[in-house]
Amino acid sequence: MAETRNIPAFARRWGKISPALVPLFAVITALIISSLFIVLTELLTRGSVDVGQELNIIGTAYNGLLEGSVGLTISNTLSSEQLALAKQYTASVEIGERRINNVARFAGEIQTYGIATILRYGDLLERFSTLDDEALTTLGQSIEGIQTIGEEKLLALRPLLTGLGTLERSEATALLDSLVDATELPAEARTAIEAVAPEVSSMADADLLADLKLIQDTGLVRAQRLLEQADLLQANNLSATSAESQDLASIAALEVAKVRDWATTAAELQAINITAPGAFGEQMRIVKDLYDNELLTAENVGTALATELDPMLQNNFIILRPNNQVLIDRNPGIYGIIDAEDRLEGETSERRVDAVYLRLGERALLFFPSNLETMIIRSIPFIIAGLAVALGFKAGLFNIGAEGQLYAGGILAVWVGFSPIFAGLPPLIHVPLCIIVGVIGGFLWGALPGALKAYAGSHEVINTIMLNFVMILLVDWLIKSTNPVILLDTTASVPRTPFVVDGAKLPTFNIISPIWFVLAALFIMGVGLWQRREQLAQNMRLMIRPVVNGLLVLVLALFLAWVSVTGQLHLGFVLMLLAVWFTDWFLERTTPGFELRTVGANPDAAKYAGMSVKWNIVLAMALSGALAGLAGSIEIMGVHFNMTPGFFGGVGFDAIAVALLARTNPRNMIWAGLLWGALLAGAGLMQTRAEISIDLVKIIQALIIMFIAADYIIRFLWRVPEASAEEKERTLFAAKGWGG
To answer: What digits encode the pLDDT tens for the residues 382-429?
Structure first.
């Protein structure tokens, strides 16, 4: 007791709170270590590391990951100073709106090749000003050929090339072709050559034959043209190996007319002392966006920036986005909503929320609802499939068959969704029927390895792995089969099933009337009050929690309807919440759930207590499969509306990681699944923004799983106390599955 009193209060509180935060610490640690992979990649690629640049790349990567997943990011806002280079340029060079794009593009390309290089190219073009673009291109393209033959050798071939040029083309070609396989120069060939090129009479037969074969290999016409270009180089005091000739070759490869434009722009920038063409080009693109949005209108861009820019910035709030895009609020405040016109089906158009912002001085905190909507949609199958794996864990079973069970549920759901047998059913019947059939499909496919485990003693890990392949390949055959056609849409360009009918699609939040949200909130409130009806007679304060729960349901529903800006967030989200609630209720509040957990903890004790171990094994695997089938049917009816071979692409296997991250706790599965969906949803934007491999997300996922499985590392790093006996018992989910 005395030792306990000596422990600081903070340490005692940390000891109570930190064990529950181990999964969060695992995620944070994985993100930190993944950053080191970025630094290591830079070190291996360049041999050195710029700390400031690396920190910027890491920040950009994780900012892109955050924006692509939950839609939150911080962006700069536009000020007059941020267009200083554009103002400096347009004050000296008169351009109109139509030239803005060209100047911006030229500046970006100058930045790519370097302003000094482009200026050097410009000087070289000026030196050859008597040649048109076509002639310059021909000269530049000839440099490599001249170098291949050798400039001196090519000039030495002049007598032969001139003499052969006096012959008919067919005669010259026939003469050269006759020497292809010759080892000695025939006398008649030498006579013919000397007749048109007397200068070669002093050459030995072997040397003359070698020169003729070289011409034949190069091509007579091409060799003659290369000689002309070599003469042109000599006339300008250049050799084919000089730096200027290499520049001519580079100019020809880039396109002469384009390089001329670059050189002109580079000279203009140099004249007004602009040394950062890349930054200048970005500013000009912003100016073009301002014109496109009719915020600047003067024909002369310099005039617009001098007279219209500052008043426009006072009356509009402009947020800068990557790739020189802008978001504009024409009625600015401390916070606001930026709308975007969204073209919908038909000829009508509606306004939808593009972003919500909060001013933070010269920056803005942005929220993009569409990104959050996408992340939630992607998370739903992981959460439900994670529940499926976790339920098996609770019974001491390692269900690796969620992938096959997803396919079993999905294929039945899509068949009921498009089959003419069920055509004409009202949505109120058709949608639940598709979901129920999908659940049954997963239930049966899960019950099969459960029965084999219970009555044949075969290991569920092996059974479920093999059954995954059976179902995946069965679905592949059902969709691809052409003789007979079973589930293939013969009108499609790729193997897939037909689309489900509209009446079988899950409704989306954006089309549901708010009155249903109110009714749902009242229902939740009413159920809570009914359950506490007896206690309420003694203490009216107990009504607070049911009322708050009802309000939370209403707020969440309205928020989801608002977030569904693209109209894709479907009622599968509600089914997911119900699946979480049902799984938690079944395991913690029902007798079958208690028996299932008891069998998972100690089969011998369960059997001694009169519980049927075999029945509970079958039940656990069947219910696990049913949840996976639910996930499959929701993904079909709510997102894709058809099915292709390889449809789920590893969702069932990722569900194992989600279950581990949630510590098999059904309530934690929501957060674990949302994290998994966030990583996948944000990966693309992270790759685009930071220009790093999308595989970084896979590294993060792998590290998270490793730290969850070996949490001693996390406990050591974050000074988390050793797991208690109760905590160890809760996390001992896979031991029985592996042990048999």
So the answer is: 999 999 999 999 999 999 999 999 999 999 999 999 999 998 899 999
Q: How far apart are CA 648 and CA 645, in angstroms?
A: 9
Spatial distance between the Cα atoms of 256 and 121, rounded to a whole number of angstroms: 10
The residues facing 339 across adjacent strands are: 353
Q: Which of 580, 183, 636 has its CA nearest to residue 406?
A: 636
- The SS3 call for residue 494 is coil
* 3-class SS letters over 15-79: HHHHHHHHHHHHHHHHHHHHHHHHHHHHHHHHCCCCHHHHHHHHHHHHHHHHHHHHCEEEEEECC
- Side chain identity at 288, as an amino acid letter? K
DSSP letter at 732?
Answer: -
Residue 580 CA from chain centroid, whole number: 29
Question: Distance between CA 410 and CA 438 in Å, rounded?
Answer: 6
Q: How remote is the C-alpha of 266 from its chain's centroid?
A: 36
Contact indicator for 322, 286 with CB cutoff of 8 Å: no
Distance CA 118, CA 112 (A): 10
Residue that is written with structure tokens 């049913």 in the block: 626
**What CA–CA distance (Å, rounded) separates 628 from 602?**
26
Distance CA 642, CA 410 (A): 9
**In the predicted structure, residue 529 carries a pLDDT above the cut 60:** yes
- Separation CA 624–CA 622 (nearest Å): 5
Q: How far apart are CA 569 and CA 439, in angstroms?
A: 21
Phi, psi of 342 (to 5 degrees): -120, 115
Distance in angstroms between the alpha carbons of the first and the last residue of the chain: 43
At 266 the three-state DSSP class reads helix
Give per-residue pLDDT as tens, 556-581.
Answer: 999 999 999 889 999 999 999 999 99
User: Is-contact 639 499, C-beta < 8 A?
Assistant: no
Tell which residue, 61, 67, 72, has the closest CA to residue 34.
Answer: 61
Amino acid letter for position 677 = G
Buried b (16+ CB within 10 A) or exposed e, 181-206: eeeebeeebbebbeebbeebeebeee
